[in-house]
Amino acid sequence: MPIFLYVVRHGEAEAVEVNDEERQLTELGKQEANKTARWLNTQVSEFDTVVVSPYIRAQQTKEIILSQNKAANVITSSQFIPSGIASTAIDELLAYAQANNKTDQHILCVSHMPLVSYLIGELSGYTPIMATAAVAKLQINLEKWNGQLDTLISPEQILL
């Protein structure tokens, strides 16, 4: 059975004024996150693990997603900030997958550019530029600690 990782960039956020960590979603960002949540709901009935940046815009995106999707375990991690190190973040994600000890898993990661692109690149070999609230679905191979990109979709492409 497969292990799927869904990597989501937060929705559109306010411009940087003072503190990047406190930037909130704009109305467009909330709409984008809602579209992404609806698409995710067509892919999975419940996330085994959700890992999210502590930054407000990522937390808000996660809340919108979880208003339409279930999650067994939600973890806020400082490894998933914009300047996070992809290899360290991947190690954390895959460690959660191993700890679940299930062969059929769905893991959600909500984070920021450029980290989301680097995560996907390190796992799959393809490093996309992610639009706000875009989602990449990867199938993970725990034995090799890598993945294959299955889907990359932005809110503008979601027709739900």
TrEMBL record:
The keyword Plastid appears for this protein: no
Any GO CC annotation of this UniProt entry: cytoplasm
NCBIfam families, per database record: sixA (TIGR00249)
SMART domains per record: PGAM
Protein name: Phosphohistidine phosphatase SixA
Gene Ontology terms for molecular function: protein histidine phosphatase activity
Stored InterPro entries: His_Pase_superF_clade-1, His_PPase_superfam, Mito_Ser/Thr_phosphatase, SixA
Keywords per UniProt: Hydrolase
Listed Pfam families: His_Phos_1
Native source organism of the sequence: Psychrosphaera haliotis
GN (gene name): sixA
Binding site for substrate: 57
